[in-house]
Design a protein that fits this description.
The protein is of the alpha+beta class. It has three domains: 1-87; 119-194, Signal transduction histidine kinase, dimerisation/phosphotransfer (DHp) domain (Helix Hairpins, Orthogonal Bundle), CATH 1.10.287.130; 202-350, Heat Shock Protein 90. The protein contains ten helices and seven strands. The chain has helices at residues 2-20, 32-45, 47-86, 101-156, 163-193, 207-217, 219-224, 244-261, 292-295, 319-329, and strands at 202-206, 228-233, 239-243, 267-275, 278-285, 333-338, 343-350. The strands form two sheets. It has a five-stranded mixed beta sheet. A hairpin with a 4-residue loop joins strand 6 (333-338) and strand 7 (343-350). The longest helix has 56 residues, at 101-156. The protein is elongated, with a radius of gyration of 41 Å. The relative contact order is 0.07. It is a multi-pass membrane protein. GO terms for molecular function: ATP binding; phosphorelay sensor kinase activity. Residues 69-121 form the HAMP domain. It is found in: Cell membrane.
Length: 356
């Protein structure tokens, strides 16, 4: 645009000089012949400037045509690349070595493709997760249900030799029914706490009192297993805001796990401390070490450390997944550590809730 403006101003100057203020000898024409001479004189006097101007105009026009064609080629290239991506080649990215605004457009397209691929991958994982959930629930329901049907069938057909056998069959069917109820309840709780919109009934709690109360509720079970539960408050009078019912569920799940899988030890420690704006609560047992490769999987639903999904320890495999979801709802996080001396589940919880 600057060059075109320069040419335009040059032509204006020529016009002003020749037409408005021409040399006296150029003004003496009264006939067509004299006018022709006038034009010839102008062309002779200013021919160099006119030639230069015409050359520049021609060059600019040629450049404009080439630049326009180059832009069209870039656009066709981008469109071809988009068609290739749209055909299902989502791993492909358009090369961003173009000029001008087209480069910004390509970058935006690549970011859009990446976000779309991520959304599709997330959707695929959700669908896969749903399928796995159905498979696991079906497996865990089918096992006790088969036992219930079997023993009730024996009772229905009168295939028992004594009242003792009858009571035993009824007891087994009842126990398996309770096992199914626990699974359904845990599944319902897991589904509920997985929703980020789940409301929290937050109140200020003295953490030492709550932990002592929960530990006391396990006193009978721990004594049967010859295990002790100790609560150690490294920060006295530690107050925290959370949903008491939901967090009590977390502590119950962690202590229950420690009782089930820490049976090789004789002590469960619950430690609580204030670190900055967080409360750090640890549930520790000195039972069998958890393999390192299993630590990250512990909080996945239905995951068990033993490869054969043994039912010897009971449970649904949802306890730790529920605990993690509840802690996340409170804006905290939980992880596990394990060595040959102890296994530790550590929770970091904000002292105050800001999203409720």
């Amino acid at each position: 645009m600057g060059i075109m403006y320069f040419i335009y101003m040059g032509l204006v100057l020529i016009f002003n000089r020749v037409v408005q203020s021409p040399p006296p000898e150029l003004l003496k024409w009264d006939t067509l012949w004299e006018l022709t001479l006038f034009v010839d004189l102008v062309l002779v006097r200013y021919r160099r400037f006119i030639l230069v101007t015409a050359t520049i105009v021609a060059m600019l026009f040629t450049w404009w045509r080439l630049y326009r064609r180059y832009k069209q080629m870039q656009l066709r290239h981008v469109l071809d690349e988009l068609r290739y991506v749209a055909a299902g080649n989502f791993e492909h990215r358009i090369e961003a070595n173009l000029s001008g605004n087209m480069n910004d457009v390509v970058h935006s397209i690549n970011r859009l493709v990446e976000s779309t691929v991520m959304a599709m991958e997330e959707e695929r994982k959700i669908e896969q997760s749903k399928d796995e959930l159905i498979t696991n629930v079906s497996h865990d329901i089918r096992t006790p249900l088969t036992s219930i049907i079997g023993y009730l069938g024996l009772i229905e057909e009168g295939q028992y030799s004594s009242e003792e056998d009858l009571k035993r069959y009824i007891h087994i069917a009842y126990t398996k029914s309770l096992q199914m109820k626990v699974l359904v309840d845990d599944l319902f709780e897991y589904t509920k706490v997985r929703q980020t919109s789940t409301p929290l009934t937050v109140q200020t709690v003295k953490l030492d009192r709550l932990l002592e109360q929960i530990a006391a509720e396990f006193e009978l079970e721990s004594s049967r297993k010859e295990m002790a539960i100790e609560v150690e408050m490294k920060t006295k009078e530690l107050q925290i805001e959370f949903d008491v019912d939901k967090m009590a569920r977390v502590f119950n799940n962690l202590i229950s796990n420690a009782l089930k899988y820490g049976k090789d030890g004789n002590l469960i420690r619950i430690e609580a401390d204030k670190v900055g704006s967080e409360a750090v609560v640890s549930v520790i047992n000195n039972g069998k070490m958890i393999p390192k490769e299993s630590l990250d999987e512990l909080f996945n639903r239905f995951y068990r450390v033993e490869a054969s999904r043994s039912q010897q320890t009971g449970g649904t495999g949802l306890g730790l997944a529920i605990a993690q979801s509840i802690v996340s709802l409170h804006g905290g996080y939980i992880y596990a550590e394990s060595n040959d001396k102890e296994t530790k589940f550590v929770m970091h919880l904000p002292l105050k809730q800001t999203n409720c």
